[in-house]
Amino acid sequence: MAVNAKKIAVYLLVVFVLYVIITDPAKAADYVQIGFQGVSDAASAVGDFMTWAANGGE
């Protein structure tokens, strides 16, 4: 039962993404840019933390 719900959720997500891309490509590009910026910021924060930890937490 849970597997079917997961498949349905993924299907609905794919349909929604395709709908956004088809109806408003500029907004879809903005969403992708926001997503990549978030991933970049997260990676930078992890790098800063690792540098801090490697320096003994100072």
Layout of strands and helices, then pairs:
Blueprint: H1 2-23, H2 25-54
Helix pairs in contact: 1-2
Protein name: Secreted protein
Describe the structure.
This protein has 2 helices and no strands. It has 58 residues and is an all-alpha fold. α1 (2-23) crosses α2 (25-54). The termini are far apart. 0% of the residues are buried. The mean pLDDT is 91. It comes from Streptomyces marokkonensis.
* Number of E strands: 0
Largest sheet: none
What is the N-to-C order of secondary-structure elements (H for helix, E for strand)? HH
Q: Assign a percent range to the helix content.
A: over 70%
> For the terminal residues, how far apart are their CA atoms?
50 Å
Structural class: mainly alpha
Rg measurement, Å: 18 Å
Helical segment count = 2
Residue fraction in strands: under 5%
Integer average pLDDT: 91
Which residues sit in consecutive blocks of at least 5 with pLDDT less than 50? none
Morphology call: flat
Summarize this structure as a short list of keywords or feature phrases.
mainly alpha, Secreted protein, 0% strand, 58 residues
Structure described in brief:
The chain is 90% helix and 0% strand. By secondary structure, it is mostly helical.
